[in-house]
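User: Design a sequence. Structure:
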């Protein structure tokens, strides 16, 4: 699937989650598109470093600490992008969990079709 299409789908998911989850606010679709780009960049550059530094904790918790890292990435995106707001850590955790699951479902069909 084209990267631009993936960004648009992710931006639409961000808008949808902001509509349904209390505590998540997005100013508009343009902001959601910026959130999708920033999340992609944070997942490429920052998340591996966080995983490396927290590897012992991740191993002890059998990988569940990765959920905390995902929530921290969402909260970092909140700090970087104006017009995107996540009110609490648990909201960021739920947001990242739902976003990851739905993205996995949508983008897994892309691999089966190829």
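Assistant: Done.
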């Amino acid at each position: 699937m084209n990267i631009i299409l993936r960004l648009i789908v992710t931006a639409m998911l961000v808008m949808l989650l902001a509509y349904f989850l209390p505590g998540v606010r997005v100013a508009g679709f343009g902001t959601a598109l910026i959130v999708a780009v920033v999340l992609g960049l944070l997942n490429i550059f920052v998340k591996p470093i966080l995983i490396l530094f927290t590897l012992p904790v991740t191993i002890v918790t059998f990988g569940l600490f990765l959920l905390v890292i995902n929530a921290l990435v969402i909260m970092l995106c909140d700090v970087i992008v104006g017009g995107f707001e996540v009110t609490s850590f648990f909201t960021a955790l739920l947001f990242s969990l739902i976003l990851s699951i739905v993205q996995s479902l949508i983008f897994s069909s892309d691999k089966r079709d190829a």
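Residues 101 and 107 are 10 Å apart (CA to CA). Residues 89-113 form the longest helix (25 residues).
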